[in-house]
Structures are given as structure tokens and as C-alpha cells.
Amino acid sequence: MDQTQWRLYEAYRSPYDPCPPLEPKRFIVPPNQYIVFQPENLPQCTPMQALQLGTLWPALYSPYDHGDWRG
Question: What's the pLDDT at 2?
């Protein structure tokens, strides 16, 4: 997939807000949001690889990155 799955947004901050601005928030867009229908002959993983990735189709794989994530 060409699109990155991670997105950022900044919360609205009023010019009169006395609090310091919040850090930008990160969220993930699942890959199934980009595939509106299942095309024919979509490549499939091997059974062992599908068990490791959690999906039969590599196009729907979304890694879970839990590093320095706050959301």
C-alpha cells in the first residue's frame, strides 16, 4: 500500500486557552479502509505466515507499533 497507516492531528486550541498546547495525537487507519471491495486473485500468505501476521492477505496487514506511542 502506498498510503501510510499512521495519521496525526492537532487538537483545537483557543487563543484564550491558558493551558499549554497538547502534543499532536497519532492514530492508525486500518488498511481495510483503503480496499473497498475484495478483488479477485488477491495475493495470499502461506498458512504459517498468515498465523504470524494475523491475516491471510498481506494487503490487509497492519503492524502494531507500541513504541513511544501516546494517544
Answer: 45
